[in-house]
Structure formats: C-alpha cells, structure tokens
Amino acid sequence: MTAFDEELVFKALYETFPDPVIILDAQRIIRSANPAALAQFGYAADAFIGQPARLIYADDSEYARRLHNRATNVDERIARTSTYSYVRRDGSTFSGHLRTTPLVDAGGRELALIGIIRDVSDLAKAVLERQQASDMLDAALDVMPEGFAIFDAEERLLVYNRAYITVCGPAGPLLRPGMTAEEILLLAQRAGHYPEALPGNPDWPAWVAHRLQDFRQPDNQPKIYRYADDRWLRVENIKTKDGNTVVLRVDVTELKRAELALERQRQELEHKNEALDQFTATVSHDLKAPLRHISMFSEMIEDELAAGNQHEVSASARHLRDSAKRMNRVIDSLLDYAQIAYQISTWSDVNLGEIVTDTLSVLGSHAREANVTFEVGALPKVQGDPELLRRLVQNLVGNAIKYRHPDRGAVVRVNGRTSGQQVELVVEDNGIGIDPRFATRIFEVFQRLHHDENTYDGTGIGLALAKRIAESHNGTIHLDTGFAEGARFVVTLPKRMRKTR
Amino acid sequence: MAKSPKRLLVVEDNAHDARFVTRALSQTDDTLYIVHVTHADEAVARLEHEHFDYVLLDIKMPGIDGMELLQRIRSNEGTSVVPVIVLTSSTNPSDVLRSYKAGANAYSAKPSSLSGYRQFAEAFVRFWIENTLPPGGTMLHQ
C-alpha cells in the first residue's frame, strides 16, 4: 500500500463527484469544471473553460436573479430560494440547486467560487405539478356554486372557496384562515344575517348553540336554515378521518320556494276540493228536499182523495205547489251562482258611488217600506265588471235591509276607502247581526241562519254569490266579527286588475 | 198498558219534514208527547228545563247544526244519556259515521214516501218505546 496522498484523493473525488462542480474566478469566468459538469452541460473542456458564468444560465433574468441572490447572501440551503434554470449546450434547460463556497485569501478577498449544481429537474417538476394540481383544485372550488370550507380540529378555518364567502354574508369579507367557526357564525349572526336568530331575538343564543353543536358533532343530516333575509341555506358538516371538519353550504332557495309554493297549491286544492264536496252535498240536499216533499204531498193527495177528504186535499196541493216553487228558486239560485266565472274577462272602470246610488233607487220602495235610513260616504273607483259589482252591492245592501232589527229604526251605512293597491267597501247595518261563530259558514252556498222563511225569505245564495263575485275580482269578503251593533261586511278589491294571472 | 206518556223532542227546521214525521209518529203511538222545535238554540233551551225521553234530530239546520247540537247534548250532564235518533236527508256515509261518533244512538235517512215515514214511526215505537225497561228490571207493562 502506498502512502496516503491527500492531493490524489481530492483529485479523484473531484473527478468522480456525481454532481457538477464548477469553479469561477473573481471575474466570474469558468476556471475549472469536473467531468460531471461537462457531461451535464454537454461541453468539451476547452469549449467550457474560460467562458463567463452567464453561459450556463437559461436567460438574462435568471442570471440577474443569481447575481442578486449572491449579493444579498441568500440562504442556499433552501432549494426554493437557490434553484435556477440552467441551459445545456444543446439549448435544453434544467433546474439546478446551486450551493457555493468562496475561496478567500488572508485579506478576505475572494479568489474563486466553487459551485455545486445539483440537477433538481425531477423535484422541480414534481413541485410544479403539485402546484398546478393545487391551483386547479382551488380554481375548481372557486367556481363551485356550493360553499365549501375546511376547519381543523381546533375549529380554525383552513381553506374556503368563493361561494363560502358569499353565503357567510356580512362575515364573508372578514374571513381569514385561522378564524374559528364560532367567530364566523357570530360575526354573521350579529350583523343580522340569520332571520331566525336576529340580534333582538332572545332565542338567538340557543340558535347559535344549536348550529355549533351540529358543527362539533354532526349527525350527517343536512339542515336547512333561513339566511340573508328571505333565502334558504342547506348546511352540511362532515368530520373527516384526520380530525378536520368539511362544511358544505348550498343555497336551496329556489328549491325551498318551489316546495313552499307546491305546499300552498296543495292546500289550496285541498280547500277547493272540500268546498266542492260541501257544495255538492248542500246542493243535493236542497234539491232533494223539495223533490221529496212533492212526491209525498202527491201521495197524500191520493190518500185524501180516496178518503174523500176535500179540505185536506187543497192544503196538500198548496204545499205541493210551494215545494215546486221552492225547488225552482233553488235551481235559479244555482244558475245564478254558476254563471259567475271564477275569473271575469271584461274589465272596465267602475264608480262604486254610482253603483250604490243605483242600488238604493232599485231597492227604494222596499227601503221606504222598511223605513231605512241610508248613510253613504265617498266611494272609490275600481276596475271590474259593473254588472257583477252591482249585484254584490245589491246583495249586501239587500241583506242589511232584510235583517233589520224589529225594535229600532234601520240604518244602513255604505263607506269606502283606499289603502295602497286595495279598495275597501264596507256595508254595515244596525240590524239583528250575525253570530260570529257563523262568520265563515254564511258564505257557503245555501247556508241560512234563519229557518223562518216567512220572515226572512231566500235560498241562502246571496252571500255565497257575493263571495264569488269578490273572488272573481281577485278580492275578498268577510264579516267584521268585532262589530257588535249589527252586521258589517268588508269587501276588499284590488284597485287595478292584473290582466294575467 | 198504564204508563206515563213518553216525551219526544223533534228538532227539524223544515216545516214539511216536521209535519210528516210527527204525523206518522202520532198515528203509530197516540200516547207519544211530541215537542217540535225548528232551531238548535230552541232545543237547547227546552232540554235545559224539561225532561225528554228521546230526541229526533236533523243534521242540516241553519245556525248551529244537528251535529254540534248532538255534541252539546252528550256533553251536558242532564242529557248525556238521552237516546238521540238522527233523521236526516243525507245518506252520505261520512255523515252516518260522524253522527255515531258524536254519540247518536241511531241514524235514519229521511223517507221519501208516506209509507216510508210510517215504517220509520213503527220501527221507532217498537224499538225505542216498547223495548224500554223501567229501573229495577221489572217489565214496564206489568
């Protein structure tokens, strides 16, 4: 074994070192390069040695960055801050992590710089790909219409997308990574973002506690909350295996509104069905009763004729005729009722004042007979079918006269007023009044409150007709049950018609 | 058959129907004492002060209807066990069911002939009057 020759060893190391080693002088001229450097950059030694260092940098800006980093003594141990794009002789480039060691003389002057360039292309590519994947994911998350965020095990916000900022409402612009779920919730709540937990509502702490509970121990059931005035938010919190919480927020307003509209329609339909059932039952009852009576009185006449009971025969014949008349009236009323379409088609401007004046003159003789005092206030104009509105007024005023109190002078008051887009017509009397228990039933077909047809005749169609007329104008009618002096009916009509529905 | 006359309250708003049924009933049993009222309120007032053995009730009446009256009769201590026979023009099964649920003892559709009324009266008298046992289990006609 020969003696240990240190110089020889270092030379061998230099020759066989797997990473490119390049030595520059103070003028940044390449003075030496090991075989690995020549191989990496693709030069023969004589074409490489003596060239300026700029040769190996991919472009001016990359070289400028290197010079800047050197001047500022950047920490070269960190690959990120000390990786440059290098160029081979054939023009291809690669990423290299540069680490340098200066050689200084006793006076501190730099003589040369030893640089080791490790090819980190594979690593740089991996990093780049990861960054691209991450950017892609961020971009995808940001265009997602669903709000998405991840909180760590300490309930601190890690990442969130654009939609999440939106659903957080007033808390959205204040979102920063590191904020806790509770802070975010309270920020939005205090700003009135949740109609079910407005700051003035004494129940808000319970509501917040409930939401936090669902965040901390999600039961995997999505919840729907109202938010942002009149919108609906579907909230889903999911605990992941690594202890994070993924939260998903979907605006389900359209869905919820459609659901609510459907429910409303269902109820309306149910109500209409019930009304139809009621109508059929009532109509069949009121048509069948006189028919039954007719049949039985004719039977009685037969019996009485056989018994030679002349006086009874004429009484039964009279009853028979009455029943036939009654049936006729019922059928007429029904026809009346059926003729009013659910939606009238012709609209014109109608002066309610004129209609009331006309009605009073039509009912004049009747009213004089009953000694009725009329007090008519100023009445608004509406749009509608004048003939139908005339019948509506006639029915109400007629009822007011008919059901007068026997012990006091009858007073009928007709007043109107406009409030917003609505017109109100109020007909009130000081008559016998209506038991508030029957406030709804009186508007059903053939519902009468008085059995005594001699005092109060009629088939019980008047108010049903009035209701149908009001409704065909997209209006309403109701009995003011708070009015004790007599009966007060309030008809509400829209001032202007919507042409389409 | 020595007996105190049975008292029947007929609640019926229609004058013709009331006439048919009272006629058929009194022709079948002339000892039956019949009071006819046309309005549920009147029925309530009469039941409050007088004793009735049976109530014959129409469902469809102006104001308080028969069903509501029946519920009142059942919830009132003095009348809670009075037999109530519903006699109405409705043959609607839901009305029948509702009547029994509200506490009717029997339900009958209004007949559409005189003989039908006679049959109803006959059945009423046989079932409700002749079958009645006096307290203590002794037969009524002994």
From TrEMBL, chain A:
Taxonomic superkingdom: Bacteria
Gene3D superfamilies: 1.10.287.130, Histidine kinase-like ATPase, C-terminal domain, PAS domain
GO MF annotation, one: protein kinase activator activity
Catalytic reaction equation(s): ATP + protein L-histidine = ADP + protein N-phospho-L-histidine
SUPFAM superfamilies noted in UniProt: ATPase domain of HSP90 chaperone/DNA topoisomerase II/histidine kinase, Homodimeric domain of signal transducing histidine kinase, PYP-like sensor domain (PAS domain)
Coiled-coil zones: 252-282
Keyword Transferase: yes
Residue span, PAC domain: 80-132
Enzyme Commission identifier(s): 2.7.13.3
Alphabetic keyword roster: Coiled coil, Kinase, Membrane, Phosphoprotein, Transferase
GO CC annotation terms, alphabetical: membrane
Start and end residues of each PAS domain: 6-75
Pfam families per UniProt: HATPase_c, HisKA, PAS, PAS_7
GO BP, sorted A to Z: osmosensory signaling via phosphorelay pathway; regulation of DNA-templated transcription
Domain Histidine kinase: 282-497
PANTHER family: BACTERIOPHYTOCHROME (PTHR42878:SF15), TWO-COMPONENT HISTIDINE KINASE (PTHR42878)
Name of the protein in question: histidine kinase
UniProtKB/TrEMBL annotation, chain B:
CDD domains, per database record: REC_Rcp-like (cd17557)
Superkingdom assignment: Bacteria
Keyword Transmembrane helix: no
Classification via InterPro entries: CheY-like_superfamily, Sig_transdc_resp-reg_receiver, TCS_response_regulator
Residues modified to 4-aspartylphosphate: 58
PANTHER family reported in the protein's UniProt record: RESPONSE REGULATOR RCP1-RELATED, TWO-COMPONENT SYSTEM REGULATORY PROTEIN
Record's protein name: Response regulator
